[in-house]
Amino acid sequence: MKLTVKDLKGQDQGELEVRLDLIDNGRGTQAVHETVVAQRANRRRGTACTKTMGEVAGTGKKPWRQKGTGRARAGSFQSPLWRGGGVVFGPKPRDFSKKVNQSTRRLALRKALSERLQAGDVLVVDDLKMPSPKTRELAAVLRALDLPRSVLLVTEEMDANLRLAARNLPGVELVTGGDLNVYQALKPAKLVFTRGAFAQVEQRLQG
Fold first, then answer.
1. What pLDDT does residue 9 have?
2. Given pLDDT bands bounded at 50, 70 and 90, which one contains residue 122?
3. Core-most of 43, 105, 125, 140, by most CB within 10 Å?
4. In angstroms, rounded to a whole number, what is the distance separating the alpha carbons of residues 87 and 80?
5. In this structure, which CATH number among 3.40.309.10, 3.90.550.10, 3.40.1370.10, 3.30.565.10 belongs to the domain 2-44+99-206?
6. What angle is formed at CA 204 by the lines to CA 146 and CA 113, rounded to 5 degrees?
7. pTM of the model
8. For 52-67, how does the pLDDT look when each residue is reduced to its tens digit (9 = 90+)?
9. What is the largest CA-CA distance in the chain?
């Protein structure tokens, strides 16, 4: 497979040969699922906490005597049936993180990129370095490349001007080729790689 390389004005600058071994069959689908689930789970902080009946502050006094009042018997003000009482089976702090081994993550990323390449959702540019950290200049570049609002920019190394220019554009995310993960590769409508970043990702997946 060959990809057309463009400059920041949208003009063709040759072709790039894809050396990545693409996955055409259903292999890797489960790896993508497991990796995305793990990445989303690892984002959860797990700090939700409620108090049980034994943790709620209150007195040990019996609300009223056991018999003779005509009301249902009650033994504690901390009862879950009462307002201000404890919570039954409520959330407690916990760790939601999941572990996925390296070979599974590599297979998942290769599968995700194979799908995006075959769908024509990947664009390669010569470079993405910005002369100044101005959002309107990056917005003009995205318009020249005819890109949608949802786009992931993948560079070989983080450029300060590009990072500052991209942070005010909704739907635009910036990442380096060494940090690209499966969820980032699947989420946006288009992926924009620099030559160096694409070679960096290919080297990661071949390793």
1. 86
2. very high
3. 125
4. 6
5. 3.40.1370.10
6. 40
7. 0.83
8. 999 999 999 999 999 9
9. 93
